[in-house]
Every structure is written in structure tokens, then in C-alpha cells.
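hey so u asked for the seq, here:
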Amino acid sequence: MEGIDEHQPGTSASTARGLRHIDMALLSDPSAGASHDDHRESYSPFRSYSPHSAFQSEPGSPSGDSVSSFPSVSSSFLFSSGPTTPPHPGHSEVEDEGELGDSMSGLVIPSLTLPSPSRRPTPYGQTLGDVRLLLLGPRGTDLAAIASQLVDDNEDVVEVGLWEEDRDESGIIRGKRKEILRVSTHWVEHRDMHGLEHVEPARNVELVQLPPYDVYSEAESIVDRVLPVIHTPFREVASIISQDHPPTGALAHLFSSPGSPLYTALVLVATPSALLPIEKNLIESLGPHIPIILLPTSTPNALHTPSDYPSRRTSASHLSSFRPDSIDALRSGLFRSPSTLATLRSEASSRFLRWREVERAVERVQWSAGTARPRNVLDPSTSQSNEWWDKQTWEAQWEGSLSQEVALHLRRRRRSDAPRRPSPLPSLSASGNTVPAQEDEQSLITPPCASTSFDPLHLPSLVAFSFSLIGALRSRVARSLGLTSAVSAPTGPSSGRERKRTGGRSFGHQFGLGFALVSVFCAGVGIGLFAAARF
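ran it, C-alpha cells below
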């Protein structure tokens, strides 16, 4: 029994086996568990345990097994977890990489690329408003490069879009716009349905590149291609305004505001000191519809001064007052000069009002032969003028050429949509008064009407007007009394004899009738003056 007690382990062995199972459950790698098992088999504390150990308790002691089990438990724990056995270098690296991969498999770290910071708008860009420019030049001129020089490296521009080709939905080539470049000088904040705010570019600057023209082509074909583009916003605005409303300062101020839909100006690439005949015709034909800015061609060692511009009377009113000498001056005037931009918008507004008056005159001419009478137009003199928009100056500038514009516009409208329009006045549609289509435009141009001032309430004017009616009144009274021989000469073989017989009598009747009429008129004037002084 004593030998059995010496070789029989105490309760510490079961405790060690329990720790072994716990250690095996904690290890996830089977290779590591195998290495720990080999380690326990070679360095097991039960094999090296000696019955004569100093820690052996007495057999009769109730807690001797538990006391003697401490060395085995501690040693087994140290041998299983301590660095006694040198680890395999290859297995440890693979285990570490596997454990790192397992731990990182559920963790996603996205690689975010921050966008470039948005440019902050300048005070000039925030208050610029809408600017719409038309670019026109001869064939061979790089209009896209000119537009790029206006917006690239511009401090007031925060976003530059892409060139967009604008085509007419109906497929009509005439009057289409070639390409459009939209540029933004400030940002617009929007709030969606969920209450989230987002920022979008304003796209308040629009550069329209028109198809280039050939210097040897006819100016009329170029004008017919460009005018529909200019008149597109004109018709859109005119459709929402009453035709009976006269041009007033309020309308001029409205159409010259920063949010006006009208085109601001037409930039024509040409040399002011050496204008070609086709360029002169374009200026004279397009100038009454839109302000024209002459942009000199970029030739080295060529400095253009304001004296190089055309000084003719016809070109002075057609060209804009803003005359830059380079692209830099044009960019500075458009983006950094509020007064220059306001002048261009005012000129565009006055041209729209003039076009509207021409349209009203053409409508009255075309529909005057109908059953319905034309609309009653308010007296323009009753309109109030604004402090910066002088209506008298505007009328004096355009009144002389108004009849010419009406005639040209009437012919252009007849030529464009003759099948759809009813025949105008019979006198105009008569076969003897028709004008061939190939006839020159000057055939319809009439001399400007003289602006004679006639006041019906002015007493000398009233007297002169009354005396001018005496001859017609005398003839009518003579016809009503049957004295036709007094106004018609007799015919026949005895005309000489009858003329001698009735000569003295007709003269007496005419003198007496005239004297009676003058007496009645003087009596009426006297009675009127007496009544005015009396009452």
C-alpha cells in the first residue's frame, strides 16, 4: 500500500488535466496545440515527480494532496505557456499573418479622395448678374480661343463648363446657334425635399459661338442667319408684354436689369481701322438690333486707338460705346466694370424697345385692311420717363430711320412667311405696286418723315388750318347749290361763247361765296372770344 501511495498522484493531477483541456480549448491553431502536447509529454511534471520531494505531504494530512499539487500546477502552467520551448520561426510568422488577416477581414477602411476646394466668388462675381455674348468672326478666326481667354485664369470665374452644341428641335439650320459655353461667377445654394443643402454653379455667363462667315459671301445671307438668334429672346419677352403698352422708362429699366434675358452684346472680330465692305454691311444691318463690340484682331505691333473706329454717322449709332482695344480690356470691362456692363445692357434694352415699335407698326400695316380695327395705342407722350432713360433722346435717335426699318422688316417678314400671312392693304398687294423679290432693298426705303411739330390748340396754327379748308368747303357748297358750271369748264363747239357769257357770273358767285364764308368764320371767332372773356 505504501508503494501504491507513493506512485499514485494526488488530486493535483486531475487539476493539471483540467488545465490541459482548458489550454487546448483556448488554442485555435491545431499545430500550436500539437506543439503544446509534445511539450507536455517531454516536460510533464508527473514524470519528473519524485515521491521523496520536499513538497510531499504526510499521508495522514487531510490537505496534503492539495498542498503538494501547487508545484505541479504552476510548473505545468509555466511549461505550457512559457517560452521554454523555442518556437518554430516559420510557423509563428504564418500564424501571425493568418491571425492578422482574420482580424482585419471585417474591417473596411475606404480610401477617400477629397475634391479640390471650390473657389470662393469675388464681390464682382457675386454682383455680375446674367451676361450673354454672341461671338462672330470671319472664317479662320478661333472664336473658342477668344472665349477661353475671357474666362480662363479669371479671378471672378469660379466654374467653367463644357462647350455644348445647341441644335434646333425642328432641324432647321437657319438661325441655329453653333456652340454655347456656360460659365459661373458665383454659387447658388439649393435645399432639397429632405432639407439638405447643396451648392450648384450659377452659370450666369453665356458665350454663344456663331458659325463663321466667309468674307466673299453676301452680307444678307449672314444677316438672315444671325437675326433669328438675336430675335429669339425678343419674341419671348414681347409675348408676355401687352402690345398696347408704350415704351416707358419702367420697361427700359426692367430690360436693362442684371437678370435681363436679352443678349448683352455682339462681339465682332474685325480691325476697326480697315473694315471690309461685308463688315460694314454687317454693322449697319445688325447694329439696330444689338450693341456691337469690335474686337481688334491680335496682330503684333498693332495698337488700336479710339480714332481708328469708324467715324461715320451711320456707324456711330450702330456700334456700342464700349470699344476695347484688346481681349484683356474686353474682359476687364465685362467682369470688373459695373458701369460698362450697365451701359451695354441699357443699349440692348433701347434696341429691343425700338424693335418692338417696328413690330407694332408692321402689325398695324398688315392688319389695317381687316374687318377688325387696329388696337388703340396709348399716346407715347403720356409715358413717364426715368431719370437715366430719356425718351425724347431715344425717339430723336431712332425716329429718322423708323420708316426704313418698318419697310425692311415688312419685306423680310413677307419673304419669310408669305404663304401663311393674309394679304395686306389692297394698295400694297396690287399688281402694279408689287416689288420683285430680287430688287434691291433700297427700292423700299423711303425718305425719313419730317418731324413737323403741329399743335392743334395753338391759335396761329388753328387759323392757318382753317384757311386751308376754305377752298374745299367752297367747292362742296357750290356743288350742293347746283353751281357746277362755276367749277367745271364748258365743252363743245360753242365753248368760247359760253365762257364769255358765264365768266363774269361765275366770278361774282365765287367772290360772294368766299366773302360769306370768311364773314361767318370771323363772326364765329369773335363770338368765341367774347364768350371766353365773359364767362
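The chain has three domains: 2-103, 124-376, 459-534. The chain has a mean pLDDT of 69.
lmk if thats what u needed
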